[in-house]
Specification:
The structure holds two protein chains of two kinds.
Chain A (H helix, E strand, L loop, with lengths): L7 H5 L14 H13 L3 E5 L3 H6 L11 E3 L5 H14 L7 E7 H6 L2 H10 L4 E6 L39 H7 L4 E6 L3 H11 L6 E6 L3 H4 L6 H10 L6 E4 L2 E5 L8 H5 L12 H21 L3
Parallel strand pairs in A: 1-2, 1-3, 3-4, 4-6, 5-6
Antiparallel strand pairs in A: 5-7, 7-8
Chain B lengths: L1 H10 L5 E2 L3 E2 L15 E5 L9 H5 L5 E4 L4 E4 L9 H5 L5 E5 L3
Antiparallel strand pairs in B: 1-2, 3-6, 4-5
Classes of the chains: A alpha/beta, B alpha+beta.
Chain lengths: 302, 101
């Protein structure tokens, strides 16, 4: 979908333009670009509070070339529901996509109630959760989607702790449990796969949930150039299974071919640095490997 | 008070927004983010296969080029120098070099 970038002028006409104040190597902006280019200019977007809202709408500038509104932290889904209902009642819904966006905290912790309500009423909205695994905007606090054993500022590692001691919340399965028409998990490591899934949502009526893995340079503590590599390793190790589901049935999974040991994924990131210090850390890596193996078995990734 | 101030500023065309605190679409282009970078990519255009991955993977969307001619370039005003294009190029046809100011 990005094959029309022939000249410098073409790059300035994107739905999400450059000039935003995101970190160097931010993969969330990569995901936003890929998604909005597929949806096109007939899109109305909402953003919950978070990095995306802060970096794209630095007053008096805006990176958005589509109608965009900043909701509160918890109600991106509710605002999008309202927009969709208003379009329906005025008879203008045809050909217009409503896109609700939030981070992992705004989806799985704070915004879960509004999101569940949107699913229940089956509003024709595409909800995208940019999952970077913590509240990165405010200083890397733990969220419900923080992976097991990750260092965050509210789950620090030390003498008696290995970081976050709870597994990542199975958010896509919570969405599937609402029996919505389409649920998908994607990753910025596989942009064509991501765009294919977004394209598919455009032909489906009803609530759609898309969760995208977006590595965060300062929060995950790695060099900016590894953003895509880490996203790909997350998928290949089985820690971030990519799949599509219709209602409560999984219809396709992205096969990983050859399994990559989780060490490869963990050692690139500073937030897992404490696992490589001693023997006790090794036992924790075994536990993470077990989570990956369970995912591989559960979704049939091999 | 704020409204009056804004009206005066708008009359003198000092600010790039309308009343109601709405920024113009794409106004962020005024923000030249090239000053973020310490490294800059060099497209060698030597072994390029025209796969377009540098366009897909650029977080800023500054890379442009034609698949047919296999000529790619980027917008120096906005490139933040993250190096993802150089890391992910399958032909290793992009180099990052340090810039000193």
């Amino acid at each position: 979908m990005l094959t029309n970038m022939l000249t410098k002028e073409d790059t300035h006409k994107q739905m999400f333009t450059m000039g935003h104040s995101g970190c160097s190597g931010c993969s969330q902006t990569m995901a936003v670009r890929l998604i909005t280019e597929v949806l096109g200019k007939n899109t109305i977007a909402t953003s919950a509070t978070g990095c995306l809202e802060v970096i794209s709408a630095k007053f008096p500038e805006s990176s958005w070339n589509i109608p965009w509104i900043h909701s509160l932290f918890e109600n991106s889904a509710a605002v999008a529901s309202g927009i969709e209902a208003a379009l329906q009642i005025t008879g203008k819904k045809e050909g217009i996509t409503v896109l609700a966006q939030a981070g992992d905290g705004g989806t799985a912790d704070i915004g879960l109630q509004a999101l569940s309500g949107m699913f229940e009423r089956n509003h024709d909205v595409l909800y995208v959760c940019y999952d970077n695994g913590a509240y990165m905007n405010t200083g890397y606090q733990r969220s419900g989607l923080t992976p097991y054993d990750a260092f965050t500022s509210t789950s620090p590692s030390g003498k008696i702790s290995f970081g976050n001691n709870r597994p990542k919340k199975y958010m896509p399965e919570i969405a599937m449990a609402h029996r919505i028409p389409y649920t998908a998990v994607a990753s910025v490591g596989y942009p064509m796969d991501l765009q294919k899934k977004v394209k598919k949502t455009m032909s489906i009526k009803g609530s759609k949930y898309l969760q995208v893995d977006v590595p965060c340079t300062p929060g995950w503590k790695y060099e900016p150039r590894y953003s895509v590599k880490i996203a790909q390793l997350g998928v290949q190790s089985g820690l971030y299974p990519l799949f599509e589901a219709e209602y409560d049935k999984i219809i396709s999974v992205k096969k990983i071919g050859k399994k990559v040991p989780v060490e490869e994924y963990l050692k690139l990131q500073g937030r897992f640095k404490h696992l490589f210090k001693d023997e006790a850390g090794k036992a924790e890596i075994e536990k993470i490997q077990k989570i990956a193996d369970e995912n591989i078995e559960r979704y049939g990734l091999l | 008070m704020l409204r009056r101030l804004l009206t005066i500023m708008l009359k003198e065309e000092k600010l790039d927004f309308k009343l109601g605190i709405i920024a113009r679409p794409g106004a962020a282009l005024a923000n030249k983010t090239g000053s973020f970078r310490s490294e800059i990519p060099v497209f060698k255009l030597d072994k390029c296969t025209g796969c377009d991955l540098c366009i897909y993977y650029c977080p800023e969307g500054v890379v442009f080029g034609d698949k047919k001619t296999k000529k790619y370039s980027f917008d120096e005003d906005y490139c933040k120098g993250c190096g993802i294009c150089a890391e992910e190029c399958p032909a290793k046809d992009i180099d990052m070099i340090l810039v000193e100011k």
